């Protein structure tokens, strides 16, 4: 993506399928959604904070943030996402790029990047997006970014029983080795970058955001816990243990991770 400010065609085509809105509302994606809510509710400034949801998709998180009383503006490179998010009560949405935010310095109380770093395959672009987030966040405000674990594709393909297929195994193994997934239908995702937990901290620091903290979202439960999500009692137990283990270094390498820094 470094060669263009436009979203790469393969990535755009993937999101134009319209799957993203439902991904976090059903199935195992609910664990990522609920855990993201849990962490953000504890960390975000008091209502009504001014929140910039960068790469916010169709507004899955913007919706509950606005309902909670926050003032939410969403930026996303996919016009179809922006159109969908614009219909949500209390959400202002527009097309934009995480690397080039059309927002004044210090405008936001918190900036969320809950997807852009997945698809910025060049390190300079990821650091640039984080630096932009820092620029538009007031001193004392928060920058929050989501990343996908380095071995995510391998774990997913084994879970789905597809790792034995040679072309699937080759793509998944390459993403574990280099972080780069050249996505296509065979692995169920698009072009992406998967982080090692340690490198996220260096990218934050290089963007002027030292001292960041990391939170495992699903942790190891991403691999086998879907059946627990439908039962309220077992779900409560699962979410509790996921919270209690969210800072365990050994669990940061599974599923998704949030990295959070306070702007100085």
Key traits:
11 helices, alpha/beta, seven-stranded mixed β-sheet, 39% helix, globular, 264 residues, 9 strands, two-stranded antiparallel ribbon
Would you mind describing this structure in some detail?
With 264 residues, the protein is an alpha/beta fold. Helix content is 39%, strand content 19%. It has helices at residues 9-15, 20-23, 29-43, 60-67, 79-86, 116-119, 123-136, 152-159, 166-178, 197-206, 232-244; strands at residues 50-54, 71-76, 91-95, 108-113, 137-148, 180-181, 192-193, 213-216, 256-262. It has a 7-stranded mixed sheet, with helices on both faces. A two-stranded antiparallel sheet has the order 6-7. Helix 8 runs antiparallel to helix 9 (166-178). The radius of gyration is 17 Å and the shape is globular.
Principal-axes shape call: globular
Number of strands: 9
Q: What structural category arises from helix and sheet content?
A: alpha/beta
Span of the ends, CA to CA: 29 Å
The arrangement of helices and strands along the chain is HHHEHEHEEHHEHHEEHEHE
Largest sheet: 7 strands, mixed
Q: β content, as a range?
A: 15-25%
Indicate the low-confidence ranges by residue numbers.
none
Count of helix runs: 11
Nearest-angstrom radius of gyration?
Answer: 17 Å
Strand order of the largest sheet: 3-2-1-4-5-9-8
Q: Helical content, roughly? A: 25-40%
Average pLDDT score: 93
């Amino acid at each position: 993506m470094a060669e263009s400010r436009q979203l790469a065609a393969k990535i755009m085509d993937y999101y134009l399928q319209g799957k993203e809105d439902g991904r976090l509302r059903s199935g195992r994606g609910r664990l990522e959604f609920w855990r993201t809510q849990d962490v953000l509710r504890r960390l975000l400034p008091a209502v009504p904070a001014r929140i910039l949801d960068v790469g916010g998709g169709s507004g899955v998180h913007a919706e509950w943030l606005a309902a909670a009383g926050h003032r939410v503006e969403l930026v996303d490179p996919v016009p179809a996402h922006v159109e969908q998010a614009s219909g949500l009560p209390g959400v202002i949405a527009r097309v934009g790029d995480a690397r080039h935010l059309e927002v004044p310095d210090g405008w936001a109380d918190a900036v969320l990047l809950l997807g852009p770093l997945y698809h910025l395959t060049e390190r300079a672009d990821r650091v640039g997006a984080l630096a932009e987030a820092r620029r538009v966040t007031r001193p004392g405000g928060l920058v929050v970014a989501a990343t996908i674990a380095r071995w995510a594709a391998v774990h997913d393909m084994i879970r789905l029983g597809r790792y034995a297929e040679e072309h699937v195994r080759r793509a998944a193994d390459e993403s574990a080795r280099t972080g780069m997934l050249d996505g296509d239908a065979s692995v169920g995702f698009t072009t992406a970058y998967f982080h090692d937990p340690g490198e996220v901290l260096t990218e934050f620091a290089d963007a002027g955001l030292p001292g960041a903290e990391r939170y495992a979202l699903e942790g190891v439960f991403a691999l086998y816990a879907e059946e627990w999500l439908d039962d309220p009692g077992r779900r409560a137990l699962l979410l509790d243990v996921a919270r209690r283990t969210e800072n365990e270094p050994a669990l940061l390498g599974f599923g998704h991770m949030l990295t959070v820094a306070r702007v100085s």
